[in-house]
Amino acid sequence: MKNKRILFVLSLVITASLALAGFTAGENEDSYGYSIGDYAAEINLLNVDGNMVSYEDYPKAKGFIVIFTCNTCPYAVASEDRIIALDAEFKGKGYPVIAINPNNPEVQPDDTYELMQAKAKDKGFTFPYLYDKTNTVYAQYGATKTPHVYLLENTKKGRMVQYIGAIDDNVRTASAVKERFLANAVNELLAGKEVSVKETKAIGCSVKQ
Length: 209
Prior knowledge:
- This protein has 209 residues and is α+β, with helices and mostly antiparallel strands.
- The chain folds into 2 domains: 1-28; 32-206, Glutaredoxin (3-Layer(aba) Sandwich).
- 30% of the residues lie in helices and 19% in strands.
- The chain has helices spanning 2-20, 74-90, 113-123, 137-141, 181-190, and strands at 39-40, 45-47, 52-53, 63-68, 97-101, 129-131, 145-146, 148-154, 159-165, 205-206.
């Protein structure tokens, strides 16, 4: 009985602590960061070409395909050609890809800035591949996986988050894809429609911090 009382008291303390921290029972690791309808803040991150990149560098953009990815995760590597294809498909229509590496190279040594540069050159990335030196942008978005996608639409009020989740329904095998969640969302916005599938589950490696 005494042990049960101790466990009960501990559970109350933990619950209270989580509540003070902004969490409630039943929330998961995706409970922080941007939600659909939120407005994304400006970024200013170092690209692999040595230049700083922000959204304001794209005055004609209708929005952005923001993808948190990295050098090392097998799921991210399996998505590289798809990300290149997405940039080719939508950049000219006003939705360029912006890739951001959320991993801390002190935790994942193969995700250093120099190795990011080598990756971008080797794969022929046509989009910015940004180094989040402060390790804060991924948390601001709420990204927990690589890859993890955020589709932003430029509006009068700001860059509205319109889709969050996976690129498609088969992160492992491109040839097996049946539903292109991200591409469908961009095409709906381009057609002046509301995004029909606003959120999917991002599947990939956990962000290394």
